Fold:
Amino acid sequence: MDEYTPDAFANRDEPIPAINVSASSGTSGVSSDSESKRSRLKNLIPSPKLKKKTQDATSDAGESGHSLQDRLFAKIGVVFVFQNRLIRLLSWRTPSHTLSFFMIYTFICLNPYLIPLIPIIITLFFLLVPAYLSRHPPPPTPSHTYSIGGPPLAPPRTIKPASEMSKDFFRNMRDLQNSMHDFSTIHDALIASITPSTNFSNEPLSSTIFLFLFVIACLLFITSHLLPWRFIALLSGWAAILLGHPTIQDLASQNTYKDHVRPASDTAHSWLDRWIASDIILDSAPEIREVEIFELQRRTGLPSLPSSPSSNLVSEYESWVFSPIPWEPLAPARVAGERVKGTRFFEDVQPPRGWEWESKKWELDLGAREWVEERI
Structure:
């Protein structure tokens, strides 16, 4: 096995880190599904001639897929080289490089009109200059008069894919597997954290998120031109770069989440739950019905006899019971001598179970005289 392939991109430093999160495997389900597909094809194509053609097509597809996979493993090294160098840059492995990037980023944020220069500078100093120096290498012996002029001394450098069964080939395979593992882990984490709050399984929470985002979008549509986007990008980049420093990483790992982040998160969640419970109402409009309460009155005493001295006195009516039925003279309950159902005081009138009064204001039926006289 070759140690490495000359002029090939491969990550020969530390492997691409993999996020260690346990995840369930679905291999058995895939294998059973493929077996069922094979059995269906076997039943649908009983002819030996067609079966032979199918096997030839399957073998050709397998060979083409294997060839494509090998080409991917041989040429994808440039992606992992860039990824590994970016990780080393942002993790402060070489502080001078990180500080240089820090200053360049600051300079570009303060002068965003220089952004078109970035691809030109990258082409000049990372593509053309190294290619020229590869054709004009320095002399093998140290010399103080090294000149880059003159005819080329070496052939032009070309990028070649990593040869199969070389260590660079297997390094690319390793880094690709780690990257796919990271993608799967991040995908599952995002689905687990974002989906429950955005798929309206919890309608009050999803409605709250929609309301907040809609309000923010309206505000940004009006005021986005007033925001200092340069300084926002500058501070965001500074925060991202400084969070990768080992000292800050050590401070963050020393119970910072448990002591500071978790209590603040719990407080924010409790406030949000209270706000949703009090302000977000997704129920339909309540049903409103009208009820009648009858004020039953009775006389204070019997009327006086005509021969008595007080025959000019007439007995008066006084409030007796507030009842949901009019208690007519011919009502079955009244004829049977049952006690009237109701309450003595108007304030004690209660709505039916599961209902509540819309307001405490009652309307007096002023046109009930004819209705009362017909039933007395």
Q: What stands out?
A: The first strand starts at residue 294 and ends at 299. The beta strands are 294-299, 317-323. The chain has a mean pLDDT of 78.
